[in-house]
Amino acid sequence: MKLLIFSAIVVLAGAYIVMKFTRVPDPPEIDVQRWWGSGKRPQKEDESIRPFKIEFNDTMIQDLKQRLKNRRRFTKPLEGIQSEYGMNTDYLEKILNYWVEKYDFKKRAELLNRFPHFKTKIQGLDLHYIHVKPKVNKDIEVLPILLLHGWPSSSKEFDKIIPILTTPKDGYKFVFEVIAADLPGFGFSEGTNKPGLNPLQIGIMMRNLMLRLGFEKYYVQAGDWGSQAATHMTTLFPENVLGYHCNMPLSSRAISYLKLFIGSLAPNLVDSDHPERVYPLKKHFTYLMRESGYFHIQSTKPDTIGVALTDSPAGLAAYMMEKIAICSNRDQLDTPHGGLENLDIDDVLDTVTITWVNECIVTSSRLYAEGFYHPDISIVANIPTAVPTAAIKFLYEVSYQPDWILRDKFQNLVRSTSFDFGGHFAALHTPKVLVDDVFVSVEEFIKFHNKK
Questions:
Q1: Does 182 participate in catalysis according to the annotation?
Q2: Among 122, 119, 148, 120, residue whose Cα is nearest residue 36
Q3: Catalytic residues per the record (predicted)?
Q4: Looking at 103, 244, 294, 368, which residue is catalytic?
Q5: Which of 105, 154, 168, 216 has the most neighbouring CB atoms within 10 Å?
Q6: Which of 224, 347, 408, 437 is catalytic?
Q7: Domain locations in the chain?
Q8: Residue 224 annotated as catalytic
Q9: How far apart are CA 397 and CA 437, in angstroms?
């Protein structure tokens, strides 16, 4: 009898836990026109779309080079240490000297300007974006796609994939019209002076940007913070997003965290693909603890670290490049570059230069402080989306989840691909592989909609 009672209690407790963790909350009431500009909303808003040109002017270049030349002497790495303690300062010296002597500011600006750039005000903030329309025959369908980046980055991250996305591809009857946006406070987009601009609100702004440009239905490709904003878009605005391609797919539902820990009991049963990428959890959490110091600083005191980074281009370069390096290959800490040489150094310095020119390290870093402490985020994150989704998982992505967890959030995961190479900045690191997967995935999205 006691065994029967105990068994009943266990069953009921299990049922309660499952019900609690799988419960889907009601969507919160959200103001989709919340004002993020300075002061109060004007009676008549500026809805104009203005051409924009990137310029690295002589005054900025001269000032930057002077600051780099007058930098203080760096502390040498410890004996036998390469990048295990962070940025290797011997290697940093080489990069900074290259930035001063060989990096061609004017040529790099010209390369960025080979695409049409624009700005428009959305909810009070001047947002910058690249908009490229393909030149194709009438028998090729043109599909709009929104590209969203993360930190530390900007729409510059997509300059290698834009030409491939906008060029007809053998075997496909469609091509893409690309809108690559700078998130607010990143790149050439204006930051807010109001608290609360989190990934959920950014997702709303990106949807409003697409509506401003005349797109009611479109595809989205995103990673990092851009993928957080895009995921919220698929949840709140499924009528707008035709398909979502993500190179950092994550489910933040309560049930997903429970399943993550349950999976540690039998990793091979729950993920026959790559269980070693997340299990044992001790190894995974050790890696996260080792590399998340910047995350904690920016989540708590972004303005403090921002003072140093805004004032010193050498400090800014070291801080940004060290994170770019580790996210490109975390197995190369025993090298002076720490993973940075998996990318073209000019692409890396473009990213640092853009951040320096726009003085946006603080406004971009604040997203970490805003990204976790708003109730609406956890509510929306716990709501599944029916938007067809494709996941591409590169070896050195910051975080990995198996498909059985991803489906908690993305109910229609129509494609999932894993690679034993590549990293976090996929559009710069492995552009062709990323674009090939986008084409295949969009074809799957089209099939999905045709079945309905």
A1: no
A2: 122
A3: 224, 368, 424
A4: 368
A5: 154
A6: 224
A7: 49-451
A8: yes
A9: 16
